[in-house]
Amino acid sequence: MLPVGCTRMNLSHIEFLVEEAVVNLRRNGLMTLAAIGTVALALAVFGGFGLILWRLERLANSLPPKFAIDVFLKDNVSRQRAQELQKQFEQHPDIAQVTFKPKEQAWPEFQRELQQEITAALPYNPLPDSFVIQVKEPSRTGAVSAWLKGLPEVDAVRDAKEEVDIILSVATVVRWIGIGGTVLLLIATSVIIYNAIRLTVFARRREIRIMQLIGATSGTIRTPFVLEGVVQGVLGAWIACGLIFGVSKMVSHFVMRKLVFIDSLGGSPMPVWVVFVALTLLGAAIGGTVSTLSVRKYLQTV
Amino acid sequence: MIEIQEASVTYPNGVHALRNVNLRVEKGEFVFLVGATGAGKSTLLKLITREVLPTHGKVIVAGRNVAEIPPHEVPYYRRMMGVVFQDFGLLPNKTVWENVAFALRVLGLPRKEIRKRTANAIDLVGLLRRCDSFPAQLSGGEAQRVAIARAIANDPPLLLADEPTGNLDPDTSWDIMQLLSHINIRGTTVLVASHDKYVIDRMRKRVVMLERGTIVSDVACGVYAHEP
């Protein structure tokens, strides 16, 4: 006698589930709007926070490369030996860039920086040949300059290790605050969205019981709810993107006028589509997950 | 069709809803379950829908021990019965047509079949002209007719009704009972929980009386027994 009706997932059944979700979203308009609004606000706060952190991190990371290591060679080192050294430096795993600065080039620069009269009195060029070295990782500055100091051809090394260290520790703190804050905000965002969507499910718990008595499988009952959750999450995410871009436009316009230097330090702004895609995926994932969790409670059978 | 053997139900809060109930319902029967509120009528119906499992004893429906049906098969088990509630249980966001069709759509029937059966069921309860109305726009009697149409759309062998006339006036109640009787004559086994004395006395059907969780009388062609 049982089962009555077929169970396979045919096209018309999928169509039915999608149609259910769309009709429910439309006819439960107010509940849907409330849920979407909550998702939008929660994701806007989350995304805005992420964007600010990203800017700060970029700012911190853009500073250390300005501090290069100057390496001064001893007077008796030949140009040929200097070229060999350059090759050796370029092969070092921590070194990003090596620029050779011959004494003939360094001298006029030095003269320009100092008073012409003082340097003019000197009968010869007192400056040594030197290298300007950029390290790949700012944190490796100390190690690289120590290694350079140990070379027999090297007379002196000048680095900005202390300044780099301060900036790096600030960057580390910012990063950890960022990760911690992001995790906390993500949890808070999920809980808020969970509550909003749980309310829409709660309002329809009788429907769920009726569907169960009609003989709908758990999957058939759940799927429209999950689709609705995903749609609410995605629409909320899009509104959140709009809010974030609107506000950041206004803020950066204001900041540009007042603090012109910020932008010159801040690096390139985060690409718009990264925020858009990330928030959309996040909204869909949270919406789908919390709907599944919300419905599960009412789907339990004895 | 239905065999309940020594079934007892104790709810988690300690309430003994049913004690040692024995009941046998043959295929094609029409049975009234009567008794005061709290006598155990609804619990007995829930044993059959498998919303409640017996604490002791056995419930066998269509040859199958209900307690042994695994949860994932319960939806398929329920497709052999239609259920009608006192408060109609219509989905408020769906029209009359959609409510009836819904029961068929969740089964994954082909579109053409759904259209045909929905039209038949709504026609049987005489509401074809209200197809596009929403439940809130219907009278109580009409809403109950829609619920019955939905319950029988799939042509289940068993129809369960829990106080189907509880919210209706006597004339409408009588019409609804006539409709259930008509469905019974077509071959469906019908179980109706009710305390609508006026209707029950006129129907002259089998009456099973419950009192504080036990069956106190079971009379064919009965009337609503007098309170002892």
Structural write-up:
The complex is a heterodimer of chains A (302) and B (228). With 302 residues, chain A is α+β, with helices and mostly antiparallel strands. Chain A has 2 domains: 17-63 and 167-299, no CATH class; 68-159, Alpha-Beta Plaits. Chain A is 72% helix and 8% strand. Chain A contains 11 helices and 4 strands; from the N terminus they run ααβαβααβαβααααα. Chain A has a 4-stranded antiparallel sheet. The longest helix of chain A has 42 residues, at 161-202. Chain A is elongated, with a radius of gyration of 32 Å. Mean pLDDT of chain A is 80; it is low at 1-7 and 260-267. With 228 residues, chain B is α/β, with parallel strands linked by helices. Chain B is 32% helix and 25% strand. Chain B contains 7 helices and 10 strands. The longest helix of chain B has 16 residues, at 170-185. Chain B is globular, with a radius of gyration of 17 Å. Chain B starts with a strand and ends in a 9-residue tail after the last strand. The model of chain B has no long low-confidence stretch (mean pLDDT 90). The interface between A and B is medium-sized, with 31 and 36 residues.
Task: Furnish the topology, listing elements before pairings.
The complex is a heterodimer of chains A (302) and B (228).
Chain A: H1 11-27, H2 29-62, E1 69-73, H3 79-91, E2 95-101, H4 103-113, H5 116-120, E3 130-135, H6 141-149, E4 154-158, H7 161-202, H8 205-214, H9 218-258, H10 260-266, H11 272-299
Antiparallel strand pairs in A: 1-3, 1-4, 2-3
Chain B: E1 2-10, E2 16-25, E3 30-34, H1 41-49, E4 56-61, E5 64-65, H2 74-78, E6 81-84, H3 96-105, H4 111-124, H5 140-152, E7 158-162, H6 170-185, E8 189-193, H7 197-203, E9 206-211, E10 214-219
Parallel strand pairs in B: 3-8, 3-9, 6-7, 7-8
Antiparallel strand pairs in B: 1-2, 1-4, 4-5, 9-10
Helix pairs in contact in B: 3-4, 3-5, 4-5, 5-6
Number of separate strands of chain A: 4
Strand/helix succession of chain B: EEEHEEHEHHHEHEHEE
Q: Which pair of chains has the greatest number of interface residues, and how are they split between the two chains?
A: A-B, 31 and 36 residues
- Total helical segments of chain A: 11
Strand order of the largest sheet of chain B: 6-7-8-3-9-10
User: Using only CA atoms, what is the Rg of chain A?
Assistant: 32 Å
User: Which spans of chain A of ≥5 residues are poorly predicted at pLDDT below 50?
Assistant: 1-7, 260-267
Gap from first CA to last CA of chain A: 22 Å
| Number of helical elements of chain B | 7
Biggest sheet statistics of chain A: 4 strands, antiparallel
Tell me the fraction of residues in β-strands of chain A, as a range.
5-15%
How would you describe the oligomerization state of the chains in this entry?
Answer: heterodimer
Number of strands of chain B: 10
- Tally of distinct domains of chain A: 2
Radius of gyration of chain B: 17 Å
Overall structural class of chain A, as computed from helix and strand content, comes to alpha+beta
- Tell me the strand percentage band of chain B: 25-35%
Tell me the major beta sheet of chain B.
6 strands, mixed
The coarse overall form of chain A would be elongated
Chain-averaged pLDDT of chain A: 80
